[in-house]
Specification:
Phosphoribosyl-aminoimidazole Synthetase, Chain A, domain 2, four-stranded mixed β-sheet, seven-stranded mixed β-sheet, 334 residues, 60s Ribosomal Protein L30, Chain: A
């Protein structure tokens, strides 16, 4: 097989079959993985969650992961936020002519490893090769199906006054990592992406209670954007305690130098949770017992005043409104 992807690999002939067999099938093979036009799946009764997402991160390799790992985590986490156990994924690749085969295999291996960790199976896919310059290296789209667990019913419209706001870990690391990986500012900081599959973390919370009002994956736009979306959907106010928001020192330093707000930097392994006040401490304890959420924290509360707005309580006790970002802080981060 060639050491780079050629247009022939996307033409549907011998080279296409070779690419699928030696790269994708080699890493994704399982009892439901199919060479037919569609996978045949065994489903249980009840409700399903169904989602799809496209990934065009630049650069495709970064400290803590790559576009392949990210594509699995993003879709697994979207399902998990609905209280759905991830079951099956499909993946579609658009590969630029000339992309290194060794890098493609590294990406497929990361997808294999992450899917196994998340307990999900890749069962179908598609491969297209685009001419040089038509795409930037590699784009991946993943679609997922999950089984909503009994008693779970979450939505951004369900936040209620009195709820506590929880984050499952320190924020802003993925966005900061991508910014540094582009090496546009000459900043050297020890920051790695938080990219991780989070079904186990959601399951740990469900073992405490199914009465969780909101679970959201803070990806593009970060925690701040998610909070504003929920405040508007539920028509509530949100008050945050800035001292309680966990931010890694390296991320703080980069944000300080560049004038960025960590609340608006992307995460790829962080949940925002709204739950009853009397359950919040137990949920945080459960999260802290899981990998990738060891520094979960309660960062604020839901109020009935100032619906649709997010207020920050500063270190000196003053209150200020969290400004909404204008434009896109970092394009192509996921």
């Amino acid at each position: 097989m060639n050491d780079r992807v050629t247009l022939a690999h996307g033409a549907g002939g011998r080279q296409t079959a070779e690419l699928i067999d030696k790269v994708f099938k080699a890493h994704f093979s399982n009892p439901q993985f199919t060479s037919d036009d569609a996978a045949v799946l065994q489903m249980q009764s009840g409700k399903l969650a169904f989602t799809t997402d496209g990934f065009i991160v630049s650069p495709p390799f970064f400290p803590g992961g790559n576009i392949g790992k990210l594509s699995i985590c993003g879709t697994v986490n979207d399902l998990s936020c609905m209280g759905a156990k991830p079951l099956y994924l499909s993946c579609a690749f658009v590969i630029e002519e000339g992309f290194e085969m060794a890098k493609l295999e590294e990406i497929a291996a990361a997808m294999e490893e992450t899917a196994a960790k998340a307990g999900v199976r890749i069962v179908a896919g598609d491969t297209k090769v685009a001419g040089k310059g038509q795409v930037d290296q590699l784009f991946i789209t993943t679609t997922g199906i999950g089984q909503i667990q009994e008693g779970m019913d979450t939505s951004g419209a369900y936040a209620k006054p009195g709820d506590k706001v929880i984050v499952s870990g320190d924020i802003g690391r993925h966005g900061c990592t991508i910014l540094l990986a582009r090496d546009e500012f000459g900043i050297d900081a020890d920051v790695t992406s938080d990219c991780a599959p989070l079904w186990a973390n959601v399951k740990a919370m469900m073992d405490v209670t199914n009465d969780i009002h909101v679970i959201r994956d803070a990806t593009r736009g970060g925690v701040g954007t998610v909070l504003y979306e929920i405040a508007e959907q539920s028509q509530v106010g949100i008050r945050l305690d800035t001292q309680s928001i966990p931010v890694q020192d390296g991320v703080k330093g980069v944000c300080g130098m560049l004038g960025l707000e960590p609340l608006y930097l992307a995460c790829e392994g962080r949940l925002v949770i709204f739950a009853l006040a009397d359950k919040a401490d137990a949920l945080v304890e459960a999260l802290r017992g899981c990998e990738n959420s060891e520094n979960a924290a309660i960062i604020g509360e839901v109020t009935s005043d100032l619906p649709g707005h997010v207020i920050l309580r500063t270190e000196i006790g003053a209150q200020t409104m969290l400004s909404r970002p204008t434009g896109e802080l970092l394009p192509r981060i996921c």
